[in-house]
Amino acid sequence: MKIGSVELPDKAVMLAPMEDVTDVGFRLQCRHFGADMVYSEFVSADALIRSIDKTMRKLTVLEEERPVVIQIYGRDVQSMVEAAQIVEQAHPDILDINFGCPVKRVAGKGAGAGMLRDIPLLLDITRAVVDAVKLPVTVKTRLGWDCEHKIITTLAEQLQDCGIKALAIHGRTRSQMYNGEADWTLIREVKQNPRIHIPIIGNGDVTSAQIAKQRFDETGVDGILVGRATFGRPWIFREIKHLLTTGEELPPIPLEECVMALKLQVEESVVRIDEYRGILHIRRHLAATPIFKGIPNFRETRIAMLRAETVDELYRIMDKAVEMIGNAKNTIAEE
């Protein structure tokens, strides 16, 4: 797959953009475990123009994480063009426009998936951003605003005509938020449209290597974005890539390597922010990780991890959980 000048492997598997999740530290983790490309958090065009410190920090790009995409969102042509030009100075590999974020504070103000209610403006923004920068410009969007307005098959051609280099589609409408099951039938229809010649990337409910392979096989998409399934499990990329390349499932990754990956996330977060807020920042990963779920009284351990306020306290809980898993395995072996 090629997006502008960016070369990616066939059946590329990428980290989806997620607010307060896909910071530079987590992107590096996912690249380490085999993600072919990574996306930034959502970047507000208005905040970029006002040079808000927290937003400007989202433009940090490290050489080790390339290829990397910075994604922006906004609700008018001028601010999106100005933001795109600011992003270009940060030298990402690709600039993505977010027309898919469903949360009220974004979509409710007309940005993100809110743009699906004003297609002429959505297309004006896309054309203007494409013309304003030399970076390859891509778009991520949804099937439509609601189930009565699933417009993606028409919209895909219109966006292609605007000059975008790839299109990522989440298999839900805005009204569905993240509820229900993602519908990939329209994603397949877009991909199979003979008039579409740009790469089509699918997104939604890719939670395992088996599902990733199934989506590739059934739809023929050029790439897949993995989102919430990466929480506490960045090694899912290694699992997916192994199945796609060998046709066999990857043996379980050693527990020690998984724990080390989580600890590296903690350390990066603490160094980048501070101890207390850094631990808060990665609690969703600790809550979601599957590696501790086999231990007795997991709920208590999970609560303890989420309440930890220092790195030493958190590591003690994690190490004790690892020990409990080892003891449980030994008991089973003896029986």
Output the CATH homologous superfamily of the largest domain.
Aldolase class I
Q: Tell me the major beta sheet.
A: 8 strands, parallel, barrel
Beta-strand content bin = 5-15%
> Which stretches of 5+ consecutive residues score pLDDT under 50?
330-335
CATH T-level topology of the largest domain:
TIM Barrel
Order of helices and strands: EEEHEHHEHEHHEHEHEHEHHHHHH
CATH arch. level architecture of the largest domain? Alpha-Beta Barrel
Overall mean pLDDT score? 92
Radius of gyration: 20 Å
What is the CATH top level name of the largest domain? Alpha Beta
Widest beta sheet: strand line-up: 3-4-5-6-7-8-9-10
Number of alpha- plus pi-helical segments: 15
Number of domains: 2
Tell me the overall shape: globular
Structural class designation: alpha/beta
- Distance N terminus to C terminus? 51 Å
Give the fraction of residues assigned to helices.
Answer: 40-55%
The beta-strand count equals: 10
Describe the structure in your own words.
The chain has 335 residues and is of the alpha/beta class. It folds into two domains: 245 residues, Aldolase class I (TIM Barrel); 80 residues. An eight-stranded parallel beta barrel has the order 3-4-5-6-7-8-9-10, surrounded by seven helices. Helix 9 links the parallel strand 9 and strand 10. Helix 4 packs parallel to helix 6, helix 6 runs parallel beside helix 7 and helix 9 packs across helix 10. The C terminus is likely disordered.
